[in-house]
């Protein structure tokens, strides 16, 4: 890379609670919907689960030392709601609170800033039974109560908060396609789940801004995921299709935050299927993020379907294709990761510029970017050149976007270490560190060593 990032750019690594912690039933943790989902035969590859995962619960000090060795200055992790509130509301589990306090203290001792996600998909199981999960009328208020507990307990030391990780995945994969917990299959439920997720975010931010931000002085935002949608041809129909696909993917959640309402394309196409915000709710939602958290992984072509949706097996079917009238496809020449996701660094740059164009000068933080490969440990090393090239090219694309005016201030690699990749189980390795799931040994991959050297060159 020829040019350098600014010295105060945030370089970090990311994980989430259910994917790494294990200790699923220890010291008072209540069950989450992912514990239950994994018990249903056929839902997860090889019927694996996060019962032990990386056993980060017992290895966090070692893990934080490895982060320190990598030279990162920020670590994004999530709190397991049912570890701190076993039934999702009411009674607090002090042992769970203490666990996160030890992690936060250890990070600060190592000069690594904690970036805490409040919700990364592991909803307390009790809330699924009692409140119908993200479809329930009270769920956003319940979430705000949980968020308040976290601000109270951790906010003296945590200054970076992310309310919700990837509402699109929760809504579409959890309530539309049913491939993630809670496994619902529906055409309409995703829009209600998404609506409640936006409200939950906004209510948590309201609590933070009114009761904590004035004294704790942190910042808070939401993280959404989006792939790039490249028009398949330069026809106006395909250009419009790609715009629509990005609106149904990202602006679904970010237009309410920045403009106070859903994108017109969604309102027009969905009619009564899209819930409405009250005026009061709109006021609460608009402006409810101090930064724009973005998770980005890949790119697909978008083509106007003309009402003829092709049921394809391409990843990220975009959710409800019929509602968008968009067909998605890949270019045969694009390289694929082990997830089957195409490696298209220029798509990352185009997406960043699209966000900048829609929400001028918004501060963007890439809270996840990375790739899975079929890594092998050979003679004690993992020579993951493909991942190394992935990071090099995507980070280069970020730099180009910054040079062209995008206000990108941070980048977190997904993931710090191999972990439980949801419905794909342990086979899909996203880590900068290799984890031997028998011995739980952690080994830095070639990409981790590259990342460390790269961050160092940006320090002077
Ligand atoms: C994100 N999709 O998940 C999550 O935030 C991480 O927990 C996860 O490990 C990582 O990306 C890699 O998958 C996604 O199908 C899962 O579009 C699925 C999709 C997108 C993101």
Structural overview:
It is a single chain. This protein has 460 residues and is an alpha/beta fold. Helices cover 42% and strands 15% of the residues. The longest helix has 28 residues. The structure holds 4-nitrophenyl beta-D-glucopyranoside (PNW). The site of 4-nitrophenyl beta-D-glucopyranoside has 13 residues, from loops.
CATH A-level architecture: Alpha-Beta Barrel
Portion in strands: 5-15%
Number of separate domains: 1
Helix coverage percent: 40-55%
SSE string: EHHHEHHEHHEHHEEHHHEEHEHEHEEEH
CATH superfamily: Glycosidases
Largest β-sheet summary: 8 strands, parallel, barrel
CATH topological fold name: TIM Barrel
CATH class: Alpha Beta
Secondary-structure-based class equals alpha/beta
Report how far the terminal alpha carbons are from each other. Answer: 15 Å
**Shape verdict:** globular
Count up the helices: 16
Read across the widest sheet, the strand sequence of neighbours is: 1-2-3-4-5-7-10-11
Low-confidence stretches: none
Give a list of the ligands: 4-nitrophenyl beta-D-glucopyranoside
**Number of extended strands:** 13
